[in-house]
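Help! Submission page says 'invalid entity' but I think these are all valid:
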Amino acid sequence: MGTKARASAPARRTGNVIRDSALGRVPETVDEIIALNGAVWQSTLVSPTLLEVVRLRNARTVNCVFCKSVRYEVARNDGLTEERVQLIDGNYQDSSLSEREKLAIALADCYLGFPAGVPPQLAQRLQAEFSVAEIAALLVALMSFNFTSRTAVSIGGMPEEPLPIMLLPVSVTTT
Amino acid sequence: MPVLTSPTSLDLDARLAGAGGPAESFKRLSASLWQQRYLSTELLELCRLTLARLHRDEVEIAAVNPHLGARALPVARRAAVLSGNSFRSTEFTPAEKAVLAFTECYALDAQSIADEVAEEAKAHLGESGLVFLIEALGCLDARIRAARCLRDLSAVAGGRHGH
């Protein structure tokens, strides 16, 4: 992973962490990226806990140091304690996570596979548990999280691990 | 199971619309990729095909990109990308080769993009252009992945469509 950033942030600071990052160098996209991040959390059809579960699964798979250390308050307030976050690991199937949370992780793993793809048996279980709109919501969330974390990793300049856990409001990226 | 020809990254949005605002936002972000000043539409399409090849996604490869309009992708350039031979091909400029090399590295593992590969792309695109390329690859790859998952879900008999 590049320890030196491959692109610098704009000189002017705005207080928005996305606009003040290297992404602020591309005015054609930065407003929509900020809007997307807000929409994923504020207009979603699934619970904040489910979103945070797939976000953290993505963060660990992509190995984004920042993404792994962040916890969103909205998910913590929804009941996703740090003890439960630790269950989102390789043995999650045998954990006390709920069936919906386990299936969301399984969908995330399918999306994050290379190549991506959903085996038929899992597809049936997903469709039995989630509505079409909920699956769409989870996929859009995964698209957003994966896009963001791989962008951060590709631009480089990641700090050394581990970072302390950072409990953040969603507004840190949207205002 | 039936082999479905849709959705692909190019017509995915209708299938995600049920997600509401976030899907609309991702649709707008994706559309903006094809109307910018950093990369030509043709080169962006070659990036999409590179990602599709690495995902071994024949449906994605076969999809016709409406953003190209009446301009057909030159056969030799398309073939070189789909065979993984863009590095050796004389069909591409050094700038195009740098972008396609970065695309391959990004697809295989974003953590492992070599500094030389990134520097070469930045030398041709500039700093802002490199950031745009990274964003574009993230969007295109996300759409290919989601489309593939949705095809697999649709292919399963007894899916709860319209639920």
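Support: the input was valid. A stray whitespace character was the problem, and the output above is from the cleaned input. Chain A touches chain B through 61 residues (CB under 8 Å).
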